[in-house]
Amino acid sequence: MRDLKSKIEEFQVRFNIIKEGFKLEDKKTELMKLEATATDPDFWNDQGRARSVMQKIGDIKKEIQIIADLERMVTDAVEVTEIETKLDELELKTYLNSTYDDKNALVSIHAGQGGTEAMDWSNMLFRMYLRFCERRGLSTQVLDINYGEEAGVKSVTFKAQGSYAYGYLKKEAGTHRLVRQSPFNADNLRQTSFALVEVLPELAEVDLPDIQIKDEDLEWQFFHSSSQGGQNVQKVSTAVRLIHKPTGIVVTAQSERFQEQNRKNALNLLRSKLWILGQQEAKDTRRKLKGEYRPASWGTQIRSYVLHPYKMVKDLRTNVESSNPDSILDGELDSFIEAELKLQ
Predict the structure, then answer these.
(1) pLDDT at position 344, please?
(2) CB–CB of 158/202 below 8 Å?
(3) CA 293 – CA 169 distance, rounded (Å)
């Protein structure tokens, strides 16, 4: 269908060029003048000239009709592709039927080994997901970010808010691999970098009545929110670090100006992490919920992005690939996400 859409777009461009060159309005003006001439009572006195004018009128009418027919057909073809797009979107929704698919998503990206190169790769992924969310009409909010010393980010957590945010993003969990010529190396050596993506549903207390978070199990730490380079952006300690003593889970939130909102974000993130931890520990439950989540770990490599010596992005689960990594890194992830959702 994508080839058909491309063809229709080509037809649209060609038709617009031809229509402009045809000078339709001038043709219509000429037709009106000729038809006015044909109404003259003396028009048929010179039959040779009259036949020539009538022939011209017929030719122009045919040309105008061809333009009108083509315009209608191109419009109908565009409408067909628009219907197909809506059908694809509706069909995809039928695969978003797992528990919590309709929730907001909490996405964390962590740089792997490789120093600045890996941190830059994490930042590239961060931008990719922000662009994907923008294309999908999902709003985003950074909850926590830890910048690299020279470039990129060591880690970042953001919330994607909107219809089925978690359902769309959940299969992105895992290790993402980049191969390219390093821009941070004077010799432009080929470098392989890794980043880990975690995706959790944002779960409120009402969603998980069985998960009790006790005050005595929590250790709260407060610190100054910081911007890139470590400069304090405010004097009060609004940033929050939350430690769950029984599990050792640590979460941070520092994007909000007020401590109370950062505390709320940290609690929601902790609650989601406790949920995924429970899924990993309960083997029977995990089998029942197969496909609903993918615990993100460094052993679960899901996709390779190769920028050198050739250009290709390939998903290792579905074998879907693209020879245009620039568009993928600009957020055009639909083909990858749709294939993985349909695989479950």
Answers:
(1) 65
(2) no
(3) 10
Cα-Cα-Cα-Cα torsion 340, 144, 332, 291, nearest 10 degrees, comes to 10
In whole angstroms, give the CA distance from residue 233 to residue 227: 6
Give the residue carrying structure tokens 């994508």: 2
Tokens standing for residue 11? 């037809």
The interaxial angle of helices 2-22 and 47-94, nearest 10 deg, is 150
Give the chain's radius of gyration (CA, Å): 30
In this predicted structure, what is the pLDDT of residue 254?
A: 87
What six digits make up the tokens of 96?
A: 């978003």
What is the pLDDT, as a whole number, of residue 229?
A: 44
Q: Quick check: do 2-94 and 105-343 share a fold?
A: no
Contact yes or no for 298/175 (Cβ under 8 A): yes
For the domain spanning 105-343, the CATH number is 3.30.70.1660
Q: Determine the Cα–Cα distance for residues 129 and 109; give it in Å rounded to an integer.
A: 10
107, 198 Cβ separation under 8 angstroms: yes
Q: What pLDDT is attached to residue 293?
A: 46
Paired tokens of 194: 């890794």
Q: How far apart are CA 251 and CA 268, in angstroms?
A: 10
Q: CATH number of the domain at 2-94, please? A: 1.20.58
CB neighbours of 61 closer than 8 A, spacing ≥ 6? 31
**In terms of C-beta density within 10 A (0-12 exposed, 13-18 middle, 19 or more buried), how is residue 83 classed?**
exposed
- Residue ranges of domains in the chain: 2-94, 105-343
How crowded is residue 182: how many other Cβ atoms within 10 Å of its Cβ? 18
pLDDT at 288: 46
User: Given strand 218-223, what is the order of strands in its sheet?
Assistant: 218-223, 239-244, 249-253
CA distance 312 to 205: 43
Burial environment of residue 171 by CB neighbours within 10 A (0 to 12, 13 to 18, 19 or more):
buried
The pLDDT value recorded for residue 290 is 42
Token pair 């998503």 is found at 105
**Ranges of the chain whose pLDDT falls below 70:** 1-3, 226-236, 282-298, 344
Distance (Å, whole) CA 312 – CA 271: 37
pLDDT at site 157: 94
Global pTM value: 0.71
